Each structure stands twice: as C-alpha cells, then as structure tokens.
From TrEMBL, chain A:
Residues 250-382 form the Thiolase C-terminal domain. It comes from the Bacteria. The gene is atoB. It holds the Pfam family Thiolase_C_1. This is Acetyl-CoA acetyltransferase. It comes from Sphingomonas bisphenolicum.
TrEMBL record, chain B:
Pfam families: Thiolase_C_1. It comes from the Bacteria. Residues 235-365 form the Thiolase C-terminal domain. SUPFAM superfamilies: Thiolase-like (SSF53901). This is Thiolase C-terminal domain-containing protein.
Amino acid sequence: MGRHVGIVGVGQTHHARRRTDVSQAGLVREAVDRALADAKLSMEDIDTVVVATGPVLFAAVNQPEKWVVDAIGAQGKSVVRLTSGGGAGFAGALAGYYQVAGGFSERTLVVAYDKLSEGQLQYSISTLYDPFWGREFAVGIMGFSAAYWRARMDVLGHTEEAAAMVAAKNRKNAIANPYAHVKKEVSVDDVLNSKPLCWPIKLLDVPPISDGAAAIVLSSEKMAHHSTSRPAWIRGMAYCCEADNAPERSLMLSEPLAIASRQVYRAAGITNPRRQFDVVEVQEPYSCFELNYYESLGLCPPGQAAELIASGATQLDGDIPVNPSGGCMGANPIGAVGVIRLIEAATQVMGKNESHQIKDAKTALVQSGGGWANLRGCAVLSA
Amino acid sequence: MALSKVGVVATAQTEFRPAWNNAQHIDLISSVVTSVFKGSGLTIDDVDFIIDSGSDVLDGRSISNCGFLGALGAHHKEEARVEEDGLWAALYGVNKIRSGSSSVGLIVAYSKPSESNVDLYWNAQVEPFYQRPVGFGQRAANGIMAQRYLADSGLSSRDLADLVADRWAAAAASGKVSIDDLPDADAILAAKEGAAPLTELMFARPVDGAVAVLIAREDIARRVSRNPAFITGMGTSMDTHSVAAREAGRLSSAATAAAMAYRNAGWASADADIAEISGSSVIGELLAIEALGLAEAGKGLSAARDGKVAINRSGGALPADPIMATGLVRLAEASRQLSQPETSSGGTPRRAIVHGAGGVGMQNNCVFTLEV
C-alpha cells in the first residue's frame, strides 16, 4: 500500500445563514487560517491545495478556485478543484488524500466551502435533472428525496417517527457545537407536527441553508509529527456512484455507499462496524437519510434502522453515537459538509472535539455524499 | 519511496467538430468509453475508478457528472469529477494508482461548447465585483498578453498568422478535426477581430468532442500494451487571479509546473522529442513554449515551427479546443505518437512533454512527461 496519510490540522468558520461581512474569498481565508494554525504551519509548508465546492451555479462564480487562490495564499502552488454535489468536500478530501498517498505531496491543504446565500439554491439544484426528460417537472432535490423516503417507509420501516428521532437527536447535539448556527432543541412531536414541505418531508426534517467553509491539513506520516502528536490517520476512504438511470437501481439501500463501505472496511480492518466504531458522523441532507445510512453502512441489518434509532444507541450516551456534532441540522454549507464531517470525526479521535467529545474515542466512521443520492462515500479515521 | 510508473494503455477520442448536432453529451462520452477498450485486452470490468472532467457551466447543469455516470461506465465504481481541464483528472488518476489502492483507471473528458455561450463561461470565471462588471475575460486577457508579447519580441501579426495556419494544416492532415475551409495566413489576418491585435482565428477554436485515456500500473500496462507510454513526471501550478498582477511576458505558473515535472522525470525539456501544448490563443502557445523551456523568452516562434523538439504535430488547441478536455487530448496525442509512431506522425520519438491549461489567460498550468 501507499503512504499513510493523517489529518493534522482542522479549521472551520462559524457557519451562518448569511455572512454579509465576507465574500467567498473571505470565508475560505478564515477556514484556512484556522486549519494552518491548528497544524502549527504556514502556507510555505503546504505543497498542494485542493479546493472543493458544491455546484458553481449555486453562487454564480465559475471555477471559483481561480479567484480564491489568492485568499488562500496558494499562488504558484498546485491547486485543483473537485466537485460532487453535496459530497464535494469529501471528494476533495479524497483527492487530497491521494496526492499525499501517491507521493505527489507531503502536505496538502483541502478547503471546501459554499456561500449559499449568494444564489438560488433550489433553482440551481433543479438544473441537475436531464434537460429533456426531467427538468420540466423536477423541483430541487426535495421531491426526489421524499419519493425515496416514501418507498423505504413500506419496505424498510423508515417511519416518520424514526426520522423525527434523528432530527430531534441531531438538533439537540448541535446546541453545543460552537460552529453551528441552528441551536434549538425540538421534540419528536415538534418534528411530526411541523409544516409538511413535500410529504413525508416536514420543515424540521430539513437542515438549514448555510454559508461556511472548512479546511483540513493532510500530511504524510513522515511530516505529521511537526503538527501534532496525535494525527487522525485515514485508514480507508472511498467514494462510489450509481448511474442515475440504471435499471436495477432500487433506492432502498444506498448501493454506492454499501460498496464504498465494503472497500473501506476491508482497507481499515473493520469486520464488525456496529461494535468497532466509537463514533460516527454522517451527512444527512434530510433526516430520513440517516436511517438509510445506518443500514447501508452495516450498523444494522436492512429494515432495522428504526429500531436502532429508537434504542438510543446512536445518542450521545449510546454505544455508537451518530452525529455528536449535530450533523447537517446545525449547519449545512453544502460543499463544505463533507470536510466538516471529517473534521468532527478527526477531532474525536484526536481527543479535542469541541462539541461533545466521546470519551476514549479511537475509531471513527465518516459518511458523505451528493447528487441524486447516487454519489456516496465513507472513511475510517483512527488515532 | 520511488514513484511507481503508470502507463497509458489505450486512448480514444471522437472527431472534434464545431458542433456535434446529432449527438448529446452522453453520446460523445459513451462513444469514447466503449471504444477505448477495443484491442486493449481490458474491459470496463477491469477498471477500478473513473475520473472525469467537464464543466457545469458549459453543460448548463448542476452536478453534471451525475447525469453522465452511466455513459462514463462508472456505475457501482469509484468516480470523481475534477472541474478543470482533463489533464488534472489524469494527474488525480496517476496519484491514485501510485498510492497502491488501484490498478486501472479510466480518465474521461468531454466538451460541448456549441450548446453554450463560451464568452459567459469565461466571464463567469473572473472576480465578480470589479472585473466581471467591465466584461473582462479570456478575449481581453489574451489580447493584452499579445500586445505585450509583440512589443517585446518584435514579431508581427503576420508571424502569428503563419503559425496559426501551420497548426490548422497539421490538424487537417491528422484527420481528427472537422475543418470546412482551411484558412491560410491571409484569411487568418482578415478574420474578425477577437481582441486586438488578435483576430478570432488566432484564438483556440471551441469544438465539441470527448476523449478517454486508460491508465494502468506498470506491470499491467506492459502486459496488455505492446509499447505503452509511461507517465514519469507531473507538475502543476496556479498563478494569481489578476492578469495585471502576473509576471508580464511569462507564464510563470507553467514554468513552475514544468520544473516540477522535469524534476520528477529526471530530464529536462531539451531531452524531449515531442511536445503537445495547449494554448488559449497563438500567444498562449508561444508563452507556453517558452515557459516549458523549449525556447528563450521572445523566441517561441522559431521553436514552434522549426525547433529540435517537434511541437504540436497534432495541430494543438488552436484549430480544436474542446474546452475542459484539451489537455487530456494532448496527453492522448502524445502517448499515441510515442507508442504507435508508425501510425501517428512518424519518427521514433521516445520522450514527450504534455501541457494543459485552465483559467483566464492560462492561470492554471499542468505539465506531464511521458516516455517509452
């Protein structure tokens, strides 16, 4: 195998519904400054930079890495941008991982961001659909996700109550997250009684729309000790996909996530994910997705996600806490979410999480994804 | 650890046309994804990952890769979208194979600018508060670069037109580019103004098309390919955003990228036999030639036409610029010239330099070295 790669520095902005005090370039700079400070490095120590954003139609700047390169301080360096819908940050981190693992770089800075307040989010997402066959009737991604959820309600028992438990759990966890901007505790009944937006999706099943940026410093094993005595090593990481129109696409389990998790678990030596992970961070664009991930990641058999959430095992005081940071429910700067999930997991195994440190957390699982629920990845981090 | 070699096993590309009117994006993509395997000894099932390049803005579609995954052959595989010229997708793929996690990768890049407003594609790239409102973009950047270059080098517009005519003739001879009326130097000079002193035909011509490159670990490449070209060096660098703030008369980021690639490869530009270079205009090509070390400052023209290193035998980007795919086309062209010289421009070249560019005024540059 290639070289070991660790996360040695992390930083993110205080996310907000709207940041009127900075441009996209300013957002990026804040996250980069924090990650470099955390890694005890300066830009001179960085070999390559990966930028990641959600679709550029969101904020109307094409190839924004060519604008923000100066704010990062990366002029003259290798800079490339990855994009993959909501999973862009994760896809960018994966590209950065391979720059180090493949020997192209000793240290890579990955910075991911979105400034969603500067665009029309759902309108932009609607252009995702096929211009001939899909766009005339598609409205954003919510309709698709609602249909997805409805199908799994019958087959897998992903009830409204189970999803409401996810929303209640994550929103409560977000209260202690200093970087989240939605900090309001809600009950299961509050979620169930909230306004339907696209049934069964209701208002409190939906995360906010946020401006925010996040950055991590990836380092080779040789250089990691300059930054921290306890790197979060990436033991396995993969990002897989499913063709949008594949005839066998079932929309029950997330097959690309299941495929990615098999690859990652094999690489990381995970044989019993339910028992071996101390903490999990997932990217839930709607509450129902977290249930889907429990099953696709092998944390429970298909059809038992509702039981798992109801058992309390994924709560802070459970044996496999999921989203101690609050997940997307606390902040959702789409293109950055994948990196934020990596940060929240890395700081757990580094022992310095700022939201809810899970005691003695050594092995963490991260999930992220985008598209029409057909781009999905996961990673295993450990100290 | 020494960086392992990654070989180019097979390539495929469509004809490049000003407009592929009877094909959609998925048709262009799937045609190269299916044909790249022919005769290669590999199938889509052997591919561990797909990395693709394209532009949401050109496609008019958010997460445009999402709608093309089937055409890309990516179903149930690892896939990544690099939203930069395809040569950066190849860089990602090489690093992934070198990490040891994968053995075979498929790199795909496509472009259909005939369905887009190309000026908007470029104008949307510049800083939105101060540069975009005045309409700054690719045309103006290249025009300014050209004015500086002509003033410094003493060359004339006729000199530029002669080089452009040569490139179009080379593309016509290759049979890979659709050309209705082959322009001579007079026609190029008489063409509509693009951005003074450059005429429209002195800019890289946007074309529709797609290209696929199959890369593999060394042992697999040697087993399935008779004479694979190996990627031995890679370098990339991005300059500052503001064209006015860049080093005048020099593509410094291309020079940085080249130095990185040559250092990895262990040889320098003088050791190369051929070069395939992306230029956003004839001036961009000359500046790139100089930045890559193939000519001294201001002397790119003689190297371009009569240099020891054969430059752009394929014609390069000027007659055919499939935006977002051009650098990967250069890689495909160079690897074919090395691996199959008898069917591709002749001679016995052994070493190649490949250059890809992105951004207004070629802000981003990537350089590969290839060897057989």
